[in-house]
Amino acid sequence: MDTQVAIIGAGPAGLLLSHLLHRRGIESVILRRHTRAYVEARVRAGVMEHEVAELLVRTGVGERMLREGLRHRGIKLRFAGRTVHVDFQDLVGRGVVVYGQQEVVKDLIAARLAAGGTILFEAEALRIEDVTGERPTVVFRHNGREERLRAAVVAGCDGFHGISRKSMPEGAVTTYERRYPYAWLGILARSRPVHEELIYVHSEHGFALFSMRSPTLSRLYIQVPPDTDLADWPDERVWDELERRLDDPSLGLERGEVLQKDLTVMRSFVTEPMRVGRLFLAGDAAHIVPPTGAKGMNLAVADVTHLARALFAFFERGDERGFETYSDLCLDRIWKVQHFSWWMTTMLHRDEDALPFDHRRQLGELRSVTESRGALTWLAENYTGLPLNVDELV
Ligand code: RFL
Ligand code: PHB
């Protein structure tokens, strides 16, 4: 099989790339390891940056998001018995949209299929050959047979555990990693969200986050040790712990049916560079951020905007300069977002191995940030998203 761009992975990165390329007449084939039902059911990200939402709308895949997404003008930070409103709209003139990643994925899959795009489900990429040649080839297994997909360019959008990063020649890339001494236990529950905005809670019992997917679906997280066994956390224990950390009876936390329970380990990870020859990494395949800043999916979209621009120039004008600049353009944003995600994480979580000094310092930091319009403005700029320049893509 031959195509212009072989895309490995049908998460937000791979699907959006295929969609943007299609709008400029560039052909791609997406390989996807799992079934369509699996892809569409997984609960992951919930918060979309202002310009990411705008990009979806302006490229014709934001119609349902406009109807069902929840526009938030800010977030709440709760610590030491008080709740502070961080009003993004007031601070930087834009907010965020709460709309599940799996809904974005559903909308993009529907749009690609409606436009006659090719997504091969249950097609597992095994390896990439001839990465530095003019026609790299993805070898994949589909319907029990090994097949080959040849292209001018391969986009590795196959997430953290995919094969693309591992296909880069030994010695060509450097990785940077930090692990954290905690994880998130998350639940999706059929219950009214405790508040109209997200509440990030710093407490002496550990971090908690009160988020949502709709007016009747709550998405809630508590910090737990990374080696936690979910079997030790029956629903009532999770609710008790959420209530204890929120420590605000006036909010009336509603205990509904728990539909899903999951554990997310926290890590920061970056691959440099993100391109070798004709293989480009985008999204979680190249980097991971801890979820506290709500940045993973947004960063995947930002990579794709750079990759799409480089590919437009290549296929429309034979101009390869974008191949050279892709990695640096992505990494400029990635390291800023790494810092923001690390900062939100370390400011809000409780490290049991830290000194009593550090716990007191953390509260000082939270007061310092929430009492400074300058600091809050920086938080708002980062949370709602650094500039994406979507104009050239629509
Ligand atoms: P994905 O979504 O992991 O998609 C990768 C795709 O590649 C496929 N694949 C393969 N296909 C063929 N052959 C192979 N060998 C393959 N190996 C893998 C997979 O099946 C899949 O289709 O990566 P992508 O597109 O880079 O997207 C990244 C985001 O998914 C991720 O960063 C976010 O979910 C992170 N994240 C959040 N991001 C936000 O922007 N805002 C948030 O509020 C937010 N909250 C979160 C999060 C992630 C979480 N978890 C579960 C890690 C909350 C949580 C709990
Ligand atoms: C979510 O709703 O899943 C969510 C929201 C904010 C985060 C992380 C996850 O920082």
Describe what is shown at a glance:
The chain has helices at 12-23, 36-41, 50-58, 63-68, 88-92, 101-114, 235-246, 296-317, 321-348, 356-370, 373-384; strands at 5-8, 28-31, 47-48, 70-72, 74-79, 82-87, 96-98, 118-120, 123-129, 137-142, 145-150, 153-156, 174-190, 199-201, 208-214, 217-224, 257-272, 275-276, 279-281, 287-288. By secondary structure, it is an alpha+beta fold.
List the topology elements.
Layout lengths: L4 E4 L3 H12 L4 E4 L4 H6 L5 E2 L1 H9 L4 H6 L1 E3 L1 E6 L2 E6 H5 L3 E3 L2 H14 L3 E3 L2 E7 L7 E6 L2 E6 L2 E4 L17 E17 L8 E3 L6 E7 L2 E8 L10 H12 L10 E16 L2 E2 L2 E3 L5 E2 L7 H22 L3 H28 L7 H15 L2 H12 L10
Parallel strand pairs: 1-2, 1-12, 2-8, 5-14, 12-19
Antiparallel strand pairs: 3-7, 4-7, 5-6, 9-10, 10-11, 13-16, 13-17, 14-15, 15-16, 17-20, 18-19
Helix pairs in contact: 1-6, 1-8, 8-9
The protein binds 8-demethyl-8-dimethylamino-flavin-adenine-dinucleotide and P-hydroxybenzoic acid.
8-demethyl-8-dimethylamino-flavin-adenine-dinucleotide binds next to helix 1, strand 9 and helix 8.
